[in-house]
Amino acid sequence: MTKKQRARIIIDKLREEYPDAVCSLDYEEAWKLLVSVRLAAQCTDARVNVVVEGLYKKYPTIDALAEAEVEEIEKIVHPCGLGKSKARDISGCMKMLRDTYDCRVPDTMEELLKLPGVGRKSANLILGDVYGKPAIVTDTHCIRLVNRMGLVDGIKEPAKVEKALWKIIPPEEGNDFCHRLVYHGREVCTARTKPYCDKCCLQDVCKKVGC
């Protein structure tokens, strides 16, 4: 079985198992997803969803957040960890959205990567979830699972994993596939415990069953 064939089977099985998988970060506007994904680094999505409620209550718009003192942003986002650097990036990002993009989040990888604190993972999330464009989000769940499943071979660098997956994942499937990997990684193919291979929907196709 080729990697492309295995990927097709895995995509279909995960779609059946998690038909309604979506981004677990709460957002109503594109800029809020940018803020949340920056806060989610080394923090749970659940905590981020709680913290941003206070942030948006005080700073409800791009303009308001761009005008906020970095120290004030840091006080609010501190529970997410790495408060100083995250606050600095959020402030810089909002200023650039206001001053360069007329308060609109860009819709290309090239432009998104110009924003402070935005890497390929964040940019892909925006492209896929907000703009419906082909995207592959190589978060920790994605990297762990595609290695276990045999879709990539011992590759841990996010950019290299993304490049490898583009060769075998149909463009229109990438975004939903990665969301489903998050669900599967939290519930079955876990990181901190032995994977629950006995209840995995991919038993007959995964290369690492029983790992």
Would you mind describing this structure in some detail?
With 211 residues, this protein is mainly alpha-helical. It has two domains: 3-22 and 136-199, Helix-hairpin-Helix base-excision DNA repair enzymes (C-terminal) (Endonuclease Iii, domain 2, Orthogonal Bundle), CATH 1.10.1670; 30-130, Endonuclease III, domain 1 (Orthogonal Bundle). The protein contains eleven helices and no strands. It starts with a helix and ends in a 24-residue tail after the last helix. It is elongated and about 55 Å long. Helices cover 56% and strands 0% of the residues. Helix 5 packs across helix 6 (83-100).
Strand content: under 5%
- Derived from helix and strand composition plus strand pairing, the structural class reads mainly alpha
Q: What portion of residues is helical?
A: 55-70%
Query: Total helix count?
Result: 11
Largest sheet geometry: none
In CATH terms, what is the fold-level topology of the largest domain? Endonuclease III, domain 1
Which architecture of the largest domain does the CATH hierarchy give at level 2? Orthogonal Bundle
The CATH homologous superfamily of the largest domain is termed: Hypothetical protein, domain 2
Straight-line distance between termini:
20 Å
**What is the tally of beta strands?**
0
Task: Give the overall shape, derived from the CA principal axes.
Answer: elongated
Assigned CATH class of the largest domain:
Mainly Alpha
**Tally of individual domains:** 2
Ranges where pLDDT stays below 50 over 5 or more residues in a row are none
What is the chain-wise order of helices and strands? Answer: HHHHHHHHHHH
CA-atom Rg in angstroms: 18 Å
